[in-house]
Each structure stands twice: as C-alpha cells, then as structure tokens.
Amino acid sequence: MTPERFEVLIDKQMDTCMNVLVHKAAEYATEDRLHNFRAAAAVEGITPRQALAGMMAKHTVSVYDMCRAGDYSLDQWVEKITDSINYLLLLWALVVDEEEGDA
Hints:
Elements: H1 3-28, H2 35-44, H3 48-69, H4 74-99
Helix pairs in contact: 1-4, 2-3, 3-4
C-alpha cells in the first residue's frame, strides 16, 4: 500500500469515527459525554475506567472473532474497527477528565 493510499484510508476512518461519536452524543443527549461510564461504574461498584473496559471488551472480542473467521464485508470491518477506535478515544477522554480533576 502506498503512503498516499494509507493516508486516505486513515483520514476516512477518522472521519467515520468522528461522525459516529457525534451521532452517539446526540442520541445520549446529556451534557456529560462520559455519563454512561460513570453511571455504569456506580451501578456496578467499579471505576468508570473499569466500566468502559467492560463495555469495550465486547467489541474487542468481536474484532478477534472476525480476524479468526475472516469472511466479512468492508462495511462490517469498518463498523467493528470504528467501535474499537471510538472506545479507545472515549477511554482517553475519561483518563484526561479524571486526571484534570473534572470527573
């Protein structure tokens, strides 16, 4: 793959990630983008990071299953990879929020 093609793919993927995150923000309709992780943590008696990790595990397992089976459409790959990237981005936001004391 050429560097140019690689850059185009990454740019397109990051746009997809952003679009999904924006769409989900509107769907959850709360001022706190990390609310679900904090609420899940409270319900489960764990930390928000642990709650996010638990939710992310489902997506990670799905990607592993797809890698093992191998017969999926590009759209299915985009969906699963986007979910995985977005959970890591949400984890990053949660870590920064906690470290800055805004949690």
